[in-house]
Every structure is written in C-alpha cells, then in structure tokens.
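Deviation from plan, reported transparently: beta-D-glucopyranose complex.
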Amino acid sequence: MRRNSKGFLLFVILAVFALIAAGCNSGGGEEGSGSGSSSAVDIGIVLPTKDEPRWVQDEERFKAALADSDYSTEILFSQGSSAKEKENVEALLNKGIKVLIITPHDGAAAAAAVEAAKQDDVTVIAYDRLITDTDAVDYYVTFDSLAVGAAQAQYLVDNAEGSGVPLYLYAGASSDNNAFLFFQGAWEVLQPKIADGTFKIANSSQAEALKDTKELNRDQLSQIIGQVTTNWDPNESKNKAQTHLTSVGDDMKGNVAILAPNDGTARSIADVFASDTAVTDYLITGQDAEKASVQYIIDEKQSMTVFKDVRTLVEDAMGMAVEIMDGNTPETTGSYDNGMTEVKAKQTDVIVVDKENVKAELIDSEYYKADEFTGLE
Ligand code: BGC
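Because the crystal trials were delayed, the predicted structure below was used instead.
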C-alpha cells in the first residue's frame, strides 16, 4: 500500500511535468500546430503569413493531408517577417526535422534560413515560392506561375471590347520571385495588344517606356514591378488605385481593364474602381480562388480568378517529404533557375474560373461547399 501510493505520487509528478512540457510546446508558438505531439518533429512546415486567406487555406489543407501521416509534423507561420521565419526554421531544426517545407516571405532573405537547415543535413523543399540565390534548396513544388499571369492577361484580352481600352497594371511584391513570373507571363500576352492599340497603359510610365519589348529581362521587369507593386497588401493596393484614378483624366476611365495579381489585391482595387462614377465598367483579374473573391465573382464585382488547387500542391509537397523520409528520391518534372542553381521542380497546372464555371470548378469539385456562398446558380 505504501509502496503503491509512492508509485502513484511519482506518476502524478511525472504527469504534471509532461503537462507542463506539452503546455510550453503549444503555448510557445501561437502559430504552432500539427500532428506531432512530442517535441521531436520529422517534417517542418513554414508558411509566410496568417494574414492572407491563401496561406490559411494551405494550413488547413496540410492539416487534412497530415491526419493520416506516419510522420510527425509542425506548421509555423512567419507573419511577414524574415527574422521570424529564421527563428521558426531554427526552432524546427532544434526539434530534429529531416525535411523542411518552406514558403519564404522574401525569396532572397530566406537563403540564410535554408542554409542553416542544409548544415543540419535537412532536405529543403521550397513550397509555392522559390528561394533564390542559394544552393541550399533541394526541391521546388509549385503551380505554373507563368501560366497564371498568362491566363489573367488572356482573360483581359478575350473580354475587352473595342480598342484604346485603358489598362491598369498591378503586381505582387518584388521580394517574391512569383511576382516576376506572374507579371512576365501576363506581359507576354498583353504587350502585342498594347502595341496594336487594343489597350493603352494608364498607370505606369515604366511599362509605357517598355511597351515595344515583348520579352522583358529581370531588370526591366523590376522597373515595372517596382512602380506598380501592391506588396501583396490590400491596403497598399487600395491607396495605389486611388492615387491612379485621381491622377488620370476621364479618357483613362470609362470601360477599363485591370491586371490585379491576386484575389486580396483584386478586391481592394475593384472596390476603388467601383466607387468612381467615371468608370462605367471594369474587368479585373485575380488568383487563388479565395472564398471572398468567389463571392465577388458571383456578385460580378471581380471578373475572374486563377484557381490553384492547393490540395494538389500539399499532396505533392507531402508526397515528396515522405519519399525523402523513406530514403527514396522524389519524382520531379522539370527545374527552375533560382539565380544560383537549377532547382528540381514538380509543377501543377492552374484553372481559370469566372462566373460561368465557378460552380463546376469549385463546388462540384468539393473544394468549397455551396452554402458558403450566396446567389450561386
Ligand atoms: C502566391 C499567391 C499569393 C501571393 C500573395 C504568391 O507567391 O503564389 O498565391 O496570392 O503570393 O501571398
């Protein structure tokens, strides 16, 4: 009896310690989550920010995919800070990860974080955004980002009416390699239509200066992106759009076309154009099929979005990570030049969604539920 109660006391003490340890584990990072319950983690996942629905979406899809994984994982968010991102990577290295899946906040600044991972013999998979100017990235899983930009531009070309249509250009953050790919893909489709007078550029002297050049080099892209960047920030997008509309005459209003790089920026820009009485109608692009933009498309406030099925990207990234954990070489379909090396890549196609096919592509495919929207036909 005495012996038993001592044993019980020891058990209680150990249990209390275990609880405290578990508390530190999840409390230490509000952003921490995943299927790993002990402090040892096999696969670390670092996403850029919780402030954009796109990345919360990725987190949800990762969690769904991880539910029946044999390996323990942890997901951390960097909240738009390269310093926080490096801390996250270090925290995961301390937990003994073997594979790091990371979407950098800033593609060049993330080199230091992945170099630290490489020194620990961790295999690095860049997820959606490439990490540039380092050889410490092993694989890249991505959508076809040139095709995203091309699809946005093609939508404007196919749906613009008449000629001399004012064209407003917006781009993503220049710290994100994807912003270059999206803009490059779009420009190759738009440039001939600017040259033949279908569109006239409304808001970028840099684009105007380069309007006869179909294939822009990185520096030329940089000049335009630097001028029309949204920094992926809805507020910055709104301010820029307001400034642009204030500084043009009525000849740059009427029926207009707007290249908006993603859904978050598209909604902000669309709201500004919708509230200008001299703008009679506007076409505006987007990407990500965020729920709020799907509703905007149903309500005819946003013209299209490029649907990137995050389920596929998550599946590819996790599939790759598991192959690596199992000691195999993952399958790749091509490669991307990151400025220092050719990174082996697996690429996924994208789908254009507008009011016509929104139900078929997003509801019938069970990506979203019909009752998450109103006015869906
Ligand atoms: C992603 C987009 C996203 C954007 C802003 C890009 O790198 O590919 O899907 O909308 O970042 O977060």
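The chain is about 45% helix and 15% strand. We consider this an acceptable substitute for the interim report.
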